[in-house]
Amino acid sequence: MRMLVSGGILGIILGIVIFAFGQVFNIFLSVLSAYVHTSRLMYVEFFSKFYEGGGKAFKKFRV
């Protein structure tokens, strides 16, 4: 416990900077996730109008 407290002012400032960077990174990932999910849904909805399935039916593999 003493080592945690003995960081001094430099340790406190470094801790705050690391914490702030972590929060900004977390928000960035959340925004990126929302953007990617929305873009994927728009892509699927838009291109499903032009899709023509011409393949063969799926047959299950049996053991």
Could you please describe the fold and organization of this structure?
One of its GO terms (cellular component) is vacuolar proton-transporting V-type ATPase complex. With 63 residues, the chain is an all-alpha fold. It has a domain at 21-49. Helix content is 70%, strand content 0%. It is built from two helices and no strands. It has helices at 2-5, 8-47. The radius of gyration is 25 Å and the shape is elongated.
Outline the fold blueprint.
Blueprint: H1 2-5, H2 8-47
Give a quick summary of the entry.
The chain is an all-alpha fold and 63 residues long. It has two helices and no strands.
Largest sheet: none
Radius of gyration: 25 Å
Helical content stands at 55-70%
Structural class: mainly alpha
Q: What is the overall number of helices? A: 2
Beta-strand proportion: under 5%
End-to-end C-alpha gap: 60 Å
Distinctive features:
63 residues, mainly alpha, 2 helices, 0% strand
